[in-house]
Amino acid sequence: MKKKFFILIIFIFYISLLNAKENKLKIMPTPADADKPMKKYSKEFAKSLLKGVDDTMYPKIFKAKMSMETIRKGRAPVKFIYEIYSKGGNKALMEIVYPARDKGKKILLLDNNLWMYMPEVSRPIRLSRNQSFMGSTFSNEDVSDSTWEDDYDPVITDEKGELILLTLKAKRKDVAYKQIDIWVNKESKVPIEGIYYGLSSKPIKKIYFSNVKKIAGFLRPLDMQMVDLLEEDAWTDVKLLELNELQTIPDHKFDATQLGR
Amino acid sequence: MNLKIIKIAFNNLFKHRGRTIFNLFTFAANAMALIVLLGMLKGMYNEAFERTIALDTGHFKIYHKDYFKEKEKMPLDKNIKSPYEVIKSIENIPYFVSAAPRIKKNGILSNTANKTNVIMIGIDMHRELKTTDLFENLKKENYLKDSGEILIGRRLAELLKSNIGDLMLLYSQTQYKASNLADVKLKGVYTIGFAIMEKMIVYVPFDFAQSFFDMQDSATEIIIRIKDKKFVPYVKKTIENILKEKYPDLILRDWTQEAEGLISGAQADFISYGVLFAILLFMAVSIIMNTLTITVFERTAEIGTLRAIGLTKGQIRWMFLWEGILLSLGGAIAGGILVLPVVAYLNLHGMTMPQEIMDKLPYPFIELKSKNEISDWFLTYIICIITGIIGSILPANRAAGTKVVDALKKGVK
């Protein structure tokens, strides 16, 4: 009897494994219903929470050092360290300082346009927005969209203790993701994790925030992990190594014609 | 023309049979090489042109006029509104076979374990079957029918280790640049023998592509097939007139404009093979010049005698020129006959090239089959005769310049 029961358990386990494999594509997360916001939270509160999330990410004008390491199954990890100058969310200059072979390469973000400058090529190359950013799980689009507030309407759709599920619905058709569901700490306004959804409501990427520390006047997540849901075991770890809020950065720093200087 | 001179020139060829045979052999080898080379080049490019038309460019493509400013980015917003209406307006023109709307955009295909960059092409399966040869090897049960089905090339299926029926993920951006992802089912694996397309191109149903890319009733291109590429100039004018009148925002491009790289590659190949053949001809010129010059020295006394009995300098010159012409023509005719079995084999059966080489070719190719025409022989004969004349000019002038008294001193053998 015991033996039969044991065989049955093994059989059920085997069948469930097969089903899991079959349904691999069906067990992806589903987006929160943005049309059913929690009544206890006002729209204004959701908006203030989203503004708080944007503020905790980066100051308006800053200089930072950031490492970005991409892990992909079967491939060697790829790591870059960037020195970043950013102004007003629509201008940013990222210069590679590590590894030595890529040192001097620069990426310029200017009003939703991305340019890459390589010392060996005299003119900067314009990058497509849907391409992967330096082989990472971030797209150029992800990197260039610095604030969510401009592109998404927030509603609160769920709550778990201190955490609130902020559902961001694209304001226009030209916004990168149709919806982003993001868990945020109600008090600190620091994001914890989020899921990006495409037009078909399928999840495309997952993002995790951690290592929250007070830096440049705000509690900020210093570490970020972007998981690509299109590829097994593929993610990019981003670590903020230094962050300094600045009063101003001269505009010529973000001039595409001056990148070689 | 003095037939007597030609007769003397002809008889002279038999005086030094060894040398004549060597010269004939040189021209025969050149003629054989030229005929084979011409056939192979024409065959290779004819095959590449026909396959490119059948698989990729059609005879024509219609685009929105602004599409080309950003063609590399495959912009979805520079599109053709109501593509079926556009097709309807051109389908009654002479030599028209079929036309099909398409939506083309780069994206990512994932089997959740691995992902790869692809080009997605939304196709109307029914029309595509009449317009292109893409799916000639695909079984009917693997044709695209329902939304969310895809066809991928054999190379891509091998790369992703995917089988028919597998569920996959397709990622791209809509015409408004919003990200989109869809579950798709692998309906079939196409084989066209062109590795680059088999690795890169994923076909999806046209209506699915319209909804996935948020394109409503639009297409990024219309591919058109006509009866034969020789009608392209006529049909081009006719379609351009229709577009000008009804759809001024649209432009028409023929296959030569679409396959610019292939055409310039062909031209470059013809130039490099031309250089190679020029070297062979230069060698033939040198050989005939050398042998005829030796002949002039050997026959100095004979030339003196001929001059003494009344032949003019011009007649002596023509005698040697005719020797060159007869040698080259004889060699070319012999070569043209000897090469016939090889040409017949290459034209009928062709040559199978190793898969590794085929994979590296930047154009579609199935087999290397020659395409010789009668004109190849005429061209070869003309080139050989010109070569023979060029090679004979110097020795002929030398012979004509021989002084009669000095020549006679050597004595006639």
Folded structure, characterized:
Chain A is α+β, with helices and mostly antiparallel strands and 261 residues long. Chain A has a single domain (3-258), classed as outer membrane lipoprotein receptor (LolB), chain A. Chain A is 16% helix and 42% strand. Chain A contains 3 helices and 13 strands, in the order H-H-E-E-E-E-E-E-H-E-E-E-E-E-E-E. In chain A, strands 6-5-4-3-2-1-13-12-11-10-9-8-7 form a 13-stranded antiparallel β-sheet, with helices on one face. In chain A, strand 10 (191-197) and strand 11 (203-215) form a beta hairpin. Chain A is globular and about 65 Å long. Residues 17-26 of chain A have low confidence and may be disordered. Chain B is elongated. Helices cover 55% and strands 18% of the residues of chain B. The model of chain B has no long low-confidence stretch (mean pLDDT 89). Chain B folds into 2 domains: 3-52 and 262-409, no CATH class; 66-248, no CATH class. Chain B has 16 helices and 11 strands. By secondary structure, chain B is of the alpha+beta class. In chain B, the strands form 2 sheets. In chain B, strands 3-4-8-5-7-6 form a 6-stranded mixed beta barrel, surrounded by 4 helices. In chain B, strands 2-9 form a two-stranded antiparallel ribbon. The interface between A and B is medium-sized, with 28 and 25 residues.
